[in-house]
Amino acid sequence: MPEPNWSLLEHFTRHEFVCRCGCGRADMDEGFVVMLDNARRLAGVAFHVNSGFRCPRHDRRVGTSADPGGGPHTKGIAADIAWPREHARAILRGAVQADIPAIIMQGAGPDDNRYVHLGKAPEVTSTY
Fold first, then answer.
1. What is the pLDDT of residues 80-110, one digit of tens each?
2. Is residue 1 part of a domain?
């Protein structure tokens, strides 16, 4: 998958979406990152990307997808965004207004354990 035209984005850079394993890949879906950039604009608060693209090897190590072909991060259609209490409503509002189909809130308690998974494709998941 070719990388998106990063210059289309107002609020994000390629660096924020690079796989955390060190492979250097950031094969994000352009439509999704434009949608995410719009959500950030609508929210009016910064989005800190905890996890963007994941190569298949890294996804197997850290992912929770039941899909043996790799989860949405490996397809470049998902990002995990830090979800601090003071910005939770704004982030959620921006994602809903930007018509992001998958919005999954994860974690409770301290802010460093909380994030919202945003994805281009609707997903069925449970953390219970």
1. 999 888 999 999 999 999 999 999 988 766 6
2. no
**Stated pTM of the model:** 0.88
pLDDT at 2 over 80: no
DSSP β-bridge partners for residue 115: 82, 106
Domains of the chain: total: 1
Q: How far apart are CA 113 and CA 84, in angstroms?
A: 9
13 occurs within a structural domain: yes
CB 55, CB 19: distance < 8 Å: yes
Is 84 within 8 Å of 116 (Cβ atoms)? no
Q: pLDDT tens-digit profile of 40-73?
A: 999 999 999 999 999 999 988 886 666 666 789 9
Q: What is the CATH number of the domain that holds 44?
A: 3.30.1380.10
CB atoms within 10 A of CB 122: 9
Domain with 78, as residue range(s), is 6-119
Of 47, 48, 43, 54, which is closest to residue 18 (Cα–Cα)? 54
Return d(Cα 116, Cα 93) in angstroms, integer.
12
